[in-house]
Design brief:
There is one protein chain. This protein is α/β, with parallel strands linked by helices. Helix content is 47%, strand content 8%. The protein has a six-stranded parallel beta sheet, sandwiched between helices. It is globular and about 65 Å long. The two termini are 22 Å apart.
């Protein structure tokens, strides 16, 4: 909504005959946005060990109706140190502030929440782990977990995912240009290029696949949702280079799966993602990825600072029901 309202003035300047004043302030009180509802799946069986704390946080936010609890999670003492390093090498001051300390009541509340979520640790270390291993055997195309398993966070290359339609409005040219720069600098990374294809596929995709070689772990649309979410769970960073975006379901799904999102500081993204996850130019995107490639372990310790629950079907279904069942006013 903000991107629409704040662009009204610029648009009206293009109209030569009639330019009503203060149109934004007139329209704003009449506007509201009901976000597209997302059904976030149960992905705990796909989560690598380093993302379990992230998943616990997502589930605790859902159980608190989307209100971010003012409490630290078990690994956040370690998290504070990693965030400090992250702040230094991103070169953007004030974006990764320190997490405040805990009070006694908050600690008790945390203990209660984590007792409810304790099955996550068991499921990832026993039954779900076994079923996950069996599923990998049955799905040989799911290479990240096989290729990356058994390697510590520092040695394992950064895994970048681009989960968008293969069309020009998603600006794949800018994305692949950034990746080629990483290769020129000799930086190690893996990439999964997902998303649906249509009649006309931009030539850059075939060119990039050849140039990236073994750095490409996945290439193309994954028709199975399980396969798709498994790749998102194994990835570290999700990128958008879109020039056209109304909402961005894929970016939110990837962030829910523990990916660090990097989005343009444009379109709908500033309304959804905190400033830390936005970039203004391709050069900024390239610089941040260069730093992430050098220290992928820092990114893997990061806990997403935005909100997820407000975009879920559980939070939005009441608003949709109210909107669709309300009788229209006579003046409409």
């Amino acid at each position: 909504m903000e991107s629409f309202l704040t662009s009204i003035g610029k648009f009206m300047k293009l109209i030569p005959d009639h330019r009503p004043r203060d149109l934004e302030s007139i329209i704003r009180p009449k506007c509201q946005v009901i976000y597209f509802p997302i059904r976030f799946p149960d992905v705990k069986r796909y989560m690598p060990k380093h993302k379990i704390t992230h998943l616990k946080k997502m589930l605790s936010l859902e159980r608190n109706n989307g209100a971010a609890p003012s409490m630290a999670l078990p690994s956040q003492q370690e998290q504070r140190g990693s965030e400090s390093v992250l702040k230094n090498f991103t070169g953007e001051s004030g974006l990764c502030g320190a997490v405040s300390g805990l009070g006694t009541i908050q600690q008790e509340s945390l203990g209660s929440s984590l007792m409810q979520l304790s099955d996550l640790n068991q499921s990832n270390s026993s039954d779900d782990s076994n079923s996950y291993q069996e599923e990998k055997k049955q799905n040989p195309t799911l290479n990240p977990s096989d290729t990356l398993g058994g390697v510590d966070d520092q040695q394992r290359p950064l895994h970048i995912v681009w989960p968008h339609r293969w069309e020009h409005d998603k600006d794949p040219e800018s994305f692949f240009k950034v990746l080629m720069r990483l290769k020129e600098l000799g930086l190690k990374f893996h990439v999964s290029v997902l998303g649906e294809t249509f009649t006309d596929v931009p030539d850059i995709f075939s060119e990039a696949k050849k140039a990236l070689g073994s750095s490409a772990l996945h290439w193309g649309y994954l028709p199975s949702k399980d396969d798709y979410f498994q790749v998102l769970c194994m990835a570290d960073v999700v990128i958008s280079t879109a020039k056209h975006e109304f909402f961005g379901v894929a970016m939110l799904e990837a962030a829910y799966c523990g990916c660090y999102p990097l989005c343009p500081k444009d379109l709908v993204y500033p309304e959804i993602f905190p400033a830390e996850y936005l970039y203004s130019t391709p050069e900024q995107l390239s610089k941040r990825l260069q730093n992430f490639c050098k220290r992928p372990d820092i990114i893997r310790k990061h806990l997403y600072k935005g909100e997820m629950a407000p975009f879920s079907w559980a939070a939005l279904h009441g608003k949709f029901r109210s909107l669709l069942t309300t009788e229209p006013k006579e003046d409409l």
